[in-house]
Specification:
This protein has about 375 residues and is α/β, with parallel strands linked by helices. Helix content is about 45%, strand content about 15%. Strand 11 (about 280-285), helix 12 (about 285-295) and strand 12 (about 300) form a beta-alpha-beta unit. It binds uridine-diphosphate-N-acetylglucosamine (UD1).
């Protein structure tokens, strides 16, 4: 029997992280599996892409679709068109699509329509908020996939509710696998990193990039005002390119300085974990960081009205606030919360998700003769 030809399509920062453990597993099974990576080019700045390839030791993609930035529709359609050509040439046995970005949806639809099997890594998440591009992406991706890898029991239940159980497996979350490798590295650099930023504990880590928070100037202005007013603690804010553009448009001074809110460039994976681990609390709208905070036991405030990771709401480890004016109170509350020594359950798996996914692929996918 020939090798299983696996194609993985990825293109954004969170996809690099959650795919890394699976890529390493698939590469370790060279005798049975051949792996090709395609980078959509959705994230293209060195600090949004290259740094993750080097920190996570990812192989060079076989192809970069260079989609760049654009509207939701433009990005999705362009990836589909450009990927179609590569699918015809490479004829994979299965196409793996991680996460819930435009890259995920575009690759899933293009592959399914061209007659290829689609495997969705991180299937079954639901926030219930269809105004989020990610919610559209994940629902549609699940429905055109034939292998669904659910990270949690809740995700598996969500798939059952949509009659998708037949193709679903509970595998755990590959982000737990990724963190296991990265945490010792984060511990190694944390002291030097904090020193280089002249950052002393306690501080609050802030990351915001969702269109719902940063694209509306009135809301963004309110957020900036609330950050300035949030008590005595310093706030360290690595700014995503989308947020950077919007802050500059508002005339906010984002040059790195010693003021209370300290804006810094986007950070690598290891640096982000080090900053998160040492933070008094996190204020975020990222999905992945809510979970990383939970696992590191850093109290989290999520500036959204919904979450696709309801497990993180346990033990008050994460709280949802939608009104930016609540930020100062939420930070004061989270800052006084000590959850580091609480007995916590870990609903995200035990760090063997990538192994489980690989085993399922080997069992379920038969190589086609071409
Ligand atoms: C995307 C994902 C989101 C994920 C996030 C992580 C979708 C719908 N959203 O959002 O789920 O949480 O990635 O970062 O796929 N830009 C640059 N350099 C880059 C990339 C982007 O300057 O390397 C700027 C561009 O101005 C672009 C903007 O950031 O217009 C937004 O980028 P985009 O790819 O549209 O989505 P994200 O906001 O990053």
């Amino acid at each position: 029997m020939g090798r299983i030809r696996v194609l993985m399509v990825l293109g954004t920062r969170p996809q690099f992280i959650k795919s890394a453990p699976l890529i390493q597993q698939l590469l370790s099974r060279r005798k049975r599996i051949s792996l090709n990576l395609v980078h959509s080019g959705q994230h293209y700045d060195p600090e949004m892409s290259h740094v993750f390839f080097s920190q996570l030791e990812l192989p060079r993609p076989a192809l970069n679709l260079n989609v760049g930035s654009g509207t939701q529709v433009c990005q999705t359609a362009t990836i589909m068109l450009r990927l179609e050509r590569f699918l015809k040439e490479s004829k994979p046995d299965v196409v793996i699509v991680p996460g819930d970005t435009n890259t995920t949806l575009a690759a899933a639809v293009a592959a399914a329509k061209a007659g290829y099997r689609v495997a969705h890594l991180e299937a079954g998440l639901r926030s219930g908020d269809m105004s989020m591009p990610e919610e559209i992406n994940r629902r549609l991706t699940d429905h055109c996939s034939t292998l669904l890898f659910a990270p949690t029991r809740t995700a598996l239940k969500n798939l059952a509710n949509e009659e998708l159980s037949k193709n679903a497996w509970l595998t755990g979350d590959t982000m737990v696998d990724a963190m296991r490798t990265a945490i010792p590295k984060a511990k190694e650099i944390e002291e030097t990193l904090l020193e280089s930023m002249q950052l002393e504990v306690p501080y609050v880590l802030v990351t915001l990039h969702r269109p719902s928070n940063v694209d509306d100037p009135t809301r963004l202005r309110e957020i900036v005002r609330s950050l300035q007013a949030a008590g005595e603690l310093r706030l360290i804010f690595p700014i995503h390119p989308r947020t950077r553009e919007r802050l500059l448009a508002l005339g906010v001074n984002i040059t790195r300085n010693r003021s209370r809110v300290c804006y810094i460039p986007p950070q690598g994976y290891i640096e982000t974990l080090a900053l998160l681990k040492n933070a008094t609390c996190l204020l975020t709208d990222s999905g992945g960081m809510q979970k990383e905070a939970y696992l590191l036991r850093t109290p989290c405030i999520t500036l959204r009205s919904t979450t696709e990771w309801p497990e993180t709401l346990r033990k008050q480890a994460n709280c949802l606030i939608n009104d930016p004016r609540m930020i100062p109170t939420a930070i004061a509350r989270a800052g006084s919360l000590d959850i580091r020594h609480e007995p916590f359950s870990n609903p995200f798996g035990n760090g063997t998700a990538a192994q489980k996914v690989t085993k399922i692929l080997e069992d379920e996918v038969t190589p086609r003769n071409i």
